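ugh ok so i messed up the first submission bc i forgot one of the chains. this is the corrected input, ALL of the components this time, i swear. 613 residues overall. if the numbers dont match what u have on ur side tell me asap before i send this to the collaborators (the ones from the other lab, u know who)
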Amino acid sequence: MISSESRARFEQEVAKYPADQRQSAVMACLAIAQQEIGYVSAEAEAEIAEFLGMAPMAVHEVTTFYNMYNQRPVGKYKLNVCTNLPCQLRDGARALRHLEKKLGISMGESTDDGMFTLQQCECLGACADSPVLLVNDRTMCSFMTEEKLDQLVDGLRATEGNA
Amino acid sequence: MNPQQVLGQFRATGLETCFHGRHIGAQILDGLDGSNWRLKDYEARGGYQALRRILGVDGSEGLTPDQVIAAVKESALRGRGGAGFPTGLKWSFMPRQFPGQKYLVCNSDEGEPGTCKDRDILQFNPHIVIEGMIIAAYAMGITVGYNYIHGEIFQTYDRFEDALREARAAGLLGDRILGSSLNFQLHAAHGFGAYICGEETALLESLEGKKGQPRFKPPFPASFGLYGKPTTVNNTETFAAVPWIIRNGAQAYLQCGKPNNGGTKIYSVSGDVERPGNYEIPMGTPFSVLLELAGGVRTGRQLKAVIPGGSSAPVLPASIMMDCTMDYDSIAKAGSMLGSGAVIVMDDSRCMVKSLQRLSYFYMHESCGQCTPCREGTGWLSRVVDRIENGQGRQADMDLLDNVAENIQGRTICALGDAAAMPVRAMIKHFRPEFEYHVANKTCMVPAYV
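and heres the new structure output, hopefully the right one now
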């Protein structure tokens, strides 16, 4: 079930569009649902479909078309590393390899403790900041040398101890 | 530390990419320091004066919508998103007397590999885009607009929402703007990972809450756009250029560029340079000057090749590139395109097969799947380049690549097919011996750098 806080955010998104075009808010609603529950579940799609007056399949089409929607549960932190050509020229692929080694997984996989999911991704639009990675869709991390990658992973792991 | 504090340590500050003080005659990125993005700061830099002038609320007599469009035409401002279409001409295509709603859309879906300029504009100077959009709305008689922002730069989307709130509170957006009769509602929307939505009709589909699959043109957005209504779509940097033109005059804008290529342009320089970043310089500046601003080629290396306009633009060897000036006409004459102004620099340690391998994978991954030549062709290109890179290429593969690319180009609804085909053909045209060497020797002509 989507929380009432997320529902309130849905309302704000719908208000941006003409009254007969509620469907326009589907991208935002799916992103909000993902932020809350970590991925886009079938239940979330059904709730959003009902909320926007769309066919559930039309919502599912959107979920599956755009790269950033998680179609299944992911780790607590999803790390998307850009390896496109401008990044490849500035150690983007190397950053991905380093994280694979550090986390002991291959790209596309999650760590056993459910902390991290590691993915290669397409252009983040931050080519001059390479190596760059995006954490949980919303936080971009720039100039990620191997030292900083270690700092990021170790730092996030340490927050678990503090919790 | 909590998780947000951990991640916050790695947030881009713009110091390296934007506030390096290495622009020439900057109009959009001038005077920015990362903290002065708010409305009061923008107004201190002369912001919203252009809007006040056209509305005549600053004591002047104001400008008519026709006068605004004429000024933009005279300035020779061309679309900064990639196509370079004359902005004033595009604005004049909008129907003047239309009984229903018309829409204005800003294309901030910046995902062309190499391009990262719109992010810095929106992050560090969001009000310049808002002012440009209000002026455009006035010129075309539009009352509702959307800024569609690349989903990957969510912090920038949040920043733009903050700027919108400031503008609304100050009476710069909404009904009766600054006490005039102008009404304009502006909202922010975001993508969520689809390169194709940078194509304007795919973007409109996405704004309607659908898969971002491009529409067949014609009809063009000016007659059938968002929700089937007349719509103008311009790039972020294009809107950002407009206030300066109104404030300083079309002739002044034209003169700081070169004929048919008005104004300044922000180039995103990436790859093998010492100082990657955004550089705003006048149109027509020699490439060698831009390269120098970016710190030159990595120490100890020679320039090998440059992709001058984002990954879709044909690659140019160093010898051709060093003779070019950075403007639409010069780069087109050299056989490539200025595109979005993303300059990807490659030094002599780079293998062109490996470079093309990553590019071709990108287009295969991002093809929307609607047109057969692109859906099948991009996969075919990617697989063939892959096998050459992995030492399993055949002598006929170069001709095969060229043939597949030729059969994609011009045979698809949108330009993604062309964008996938052009880099392949240019790579083979200019660096064929490298591909042949790869096939014959199952290894690189260039020793691996990494």
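quick check: DSSP finds seven helices and four strands in chain A. that seems consistent at least. Chain A has a mean pLDDT of 96.
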